[in-house]
Amino acid sequence: MSTQPLTFSELISGNQPVLVDFFATWCGPCQMMQPILEDTARQLGEKIKIVKVDVDKNPLAASKFQVRGVPTLILFQKGQILWRQSGVVPAHQLVNTIEGYLTEKV
């Protein structure tokens, strides 16, 4: 039995919260977010999935979610936007914000 990779819509519609990083390769602040996202992933583990979306390669996704600047972070769960912010977010603030949404659901 082979499993097909999930589409973006399927991914953000699941029960597991998904943090989407809308970024661009030419964007300096986006590059600053990379180690912050890695740190966030280490701290939160399996509680969350982190996905990166290159706005230059995926303009329709960026347009659909009205991403006007990069980096823009959007937290989805069950297809709903729980939180969004543009710009660099410090790791402790990002983890605290996400954990706030995780504990609300319990």
Structural class: alpha+beta
The strand line-up of the biggest sheet is 2-1-3-4
The DSSP helix count reads: 4
Parts with pLDDT < 50 across at least 5 consecutive residues: none
Would you give an account of this structure?
Disulfide bonds join 27-30. The record marks 21 as: Deprotonates C-terminal active site Cys. The record marks 28-29 as: Contributes to redox potential value. The active site is at 27 (nucleophile), 30 (nucleophile). One of its GO terms (molecular function) is protein-disulfide reductase activity. The protein has 106 residues and is an alpha+beta fold. It has one domain: Glutaredoxin (3-Layer(aba) Sandwich), CATH 3.40.30. 40% of the residues lie in helices and 24% in strands. The protein contains 4 helices and 4 strands, in the order H-E-H-E-H-E-E-H. The chain has helices spanning 8-12, 28-44, 59-64, 91-104; strands at residues 18-23, 49-54, 72-77, 80-86. The protein has a 4-stranded mixed sheet with strand order 2-1-3-4. Strand 1 (18-23), helix 2 (28-44) and strand 2 (49-54) form a beta-alpha-beta unit. The longest helix is centred in the middle third of the chain and has 17 residues, at 28-44. It is globular.
Write a concise synopsis of the structure shown.
The chain has four helices and four strands, in the order H-E-H-E-H-E-E-H. By secondary structure, it is an alpha+beta fold. Disulfide bonds join 27-30.
